[in-house]
Structure formats: C-alpha cells, structure tokens
Design goal:
Strand content: under 5%
Number of helices: 3
Number of strands: 0
Largest sheet: none
Radius of gyration: 14 Å
Length: 75
C-alpha cells in the first residue's frame, strides 16, 4: 500500500523535487543553494543554472571521499 501512496523509496534524494531545489525556499534557513557543496552529476546538470555565479559544486565525478571534497575546495 505504501508504494501506491507514493511512499516507495528509491536511491538518491528522496522527497525533494527539482522544482523545490530551483525555488527560493530551498534550504532557506541554511543559506539556500549557495551552501550546497556536493550533488550528483545528473542533478547538477539539471539544476546548474540555479547555482550562484562562481559557485563550485563537486560531483561524484570530482570526489569520492570527504577528504577529496576538502581538497577540491582547497584548490
């Protein structure tokens, strides 16, 4: 019954739509889209126009670990 009511879970971001990520309300309490540092490359391609000018966001193609993420931003 949960699957029919929309409760089925799938890999990736659960319960967050592309429209929400593109909205001004996305992570509003935490500073918005400008606070995002990592996202899936497909998602980055789909919402990349919402990123702030000059904002760097790593993807799984750039980094595999937290350490690599730290190094990504120290470059």
């Amino acid at each position: 019954m949960a699957n029919e009511a929309g409760g089925k879970q799938t890999p990736g971001i659960l319960g967050v739509s592309l429209d929400y990520i593109r909205s001004e309300r996305f992570l509003k309490g935490d500073g918005g889209i400008g606070k995002v540092v990592w996202m899936d490359s497909d998602l980055a391609r789909r919402v990349g126009d919402r990123l702030l000018p000059g904002q760097r966001v790593a993807t799984e193609k750039d980094v595999k670990t937290i350490r690599e993420l730290e190094e990504f931003f120290s470059r």
